[in-house]
Amino acid sequence: xxxxxxxxxxxxxxxxxxxxxxxxxxxxxxxxxxxxxxxxxxxxxxxxxxxxxxxxxxxxxxxxxxxxxxxxxxxxxxxxxxxxxxxxxxxxxxxxxxxxxxxxxxxxxxxxxxxxxxxxxxxxxxxxxxxxxxxxxxxxxxxxxxxxxxxxxxxxxxxxxxxxxxxxxxxxx
Length: 173
Prior knowledge:
Elements: E1 8-13, E2 16-21, E3 36-40, H1 46-64, H2 78-91, H3 96-100, H4 111-125, H5 129-141, H6 154-168
Antiparallel strand pairs: 1-2, 2-3
Helix pairs in contact: 1-2, 2-6, 4-5, 4-6
């Protein structure tokens, strides 16, 4: 996946929704061999869709890729992507390095971008801007120290992953 859009797509038939994987254009797959990965119902149930998406992505992320797979950016509903990536990180803590190395820098050169990411992260996570800023600054100041993901609170994890997702949703990060 290098297009910037996660390869999980959905379609509906009747009252059931289905998730399938669509690789990037030119990857050699035709529309006739796109695998259906899971289903949810009823299609109007947002929570059933969220649970289906998170479960499917957690089980298939190695196939679909954890952003930024091959260097791409990724866009999608922040909360849905946040839940999916956090679920993966709970199972595969080694992937934290991917998240932590792409967090925004609170330096003079990156101050405007950092503040934008803080604002969007606060909106996505419902955590105050002050606390988001403190968590991101603390991570930056301690970047030389290997961070033990087991020592992170759930709120810290959500803030760091949300900031990462927001950061990679911008082209040219």
